[in-house]
Amino acid sequence: MTYPNIPQYFAIDGNVEDIRPFGDGHINDTCHAVLTNPSGKRQDIVLQKMNTKIFKNPKQLMDNVIRVTDHLRHKIVQRGGNPARETLEMIPCRDGAWYYQDVDGECWRCYYMIDGTMSYEKVENPTVFYHSGRAFGQFMADLSDFPAETLFEVIPDFHNTAKRFRDLQEAIEEDLAGRGGSVPEEIQFAQKRKHIAGYMTEKMQAGELPTRVTHNDTKINNILMDPDSGEGVCIIDLDTVMPGSCVYDFGDSIRFGASSALEDEKDLSKVYMDLDLFEAYTEGYLRAVGDQLTPEEISNLSMGAIVITFETGIRFLADYLQGDTYFKISRPEHNLDRCRTQFKLVQDMEEKYETMQAIVEKHRPR
């Protein structure tokens, strides 16, 4: 991959000393660049090529990011925090735009790297996950007064689980990659749980669950953590910030972080939802979000974990059946392995649902 000349296009001075791939995100291409300005000071920045096959409206996406980070910056200042450290700071292009489009039509953006932080690919202990819950709970609380309906819907129906199920049915019928015959158990598992697909969407359409500003990718690796205190510092990867329901955000954290194994674990005997981790996150999240959630939202947090895990599983399965056109893969059955871990988690959560509900009630704000 080639990168545009950063000082030429973005409003940052300095010579590029080093530039290399960074992170392992599924969607965008990211690199870490080190610049030295004329006075010799080092500046670390992140440069990303946005995946416009998925994010088809980069201007609206960046408008969302700028508006949300501006709002967060204001809230952070109000409580005496450090906005340069606690939310992303985008670097505009020299012409004032928030992204640069190169001669090939590729769209690039740039932001300052936040020093002295780390991220986890997997939750290592309940304390780490507690602080993860606090970070995402604070994010939700800070944005509770933001008019969610004014944000652009970056990916329409992103967490419309009922539509995701219909997409899976279409993928099964078309079987574009000729793989349907090799996954009958996975297809049967999904079809037996069709009722799960409409659970949250029906509540949202009925107004029982309010529309909020949601992150929509609340994995622990989207939090920068302080290695000394262990506390969450900054929520990153804001591409999918848009209107949604907090129960999906909560559930996605549980799906990814409370799992005993990585998202693509092949040995399903290692995969289950850890109740201690579930409780740690729930306690941290509800302490931070305080009284900003409605009773109905709190009562549906556990079900949110089941629904989003099921949704993620059927998305991986549909992509596998379509020939791996959405998620990046590193091996031929990567998406199938991902699907199987999600389905194993769904089954385990179903068995632990009553215990999960008791934990939520234990930590419900009084």
UniProtKB/TrEMBL annotation:
Matching Pfam families: APH
Signal peptide: none
InterPro entries for the chain: Aminoglycoside_PTrfase, Kinase-like_dom_sf, Pseudomonas-type_ThrB
Domain of life: Bacteria
Aminoglycoside phosphotransferase domain ranges (all copies): 18-256
UniProt name for this protein: Aminoglycoside phosphotransferase family protein
Lineage: Bacteria, Bacillati, Bacillota, Clostridia, Eubacteriales
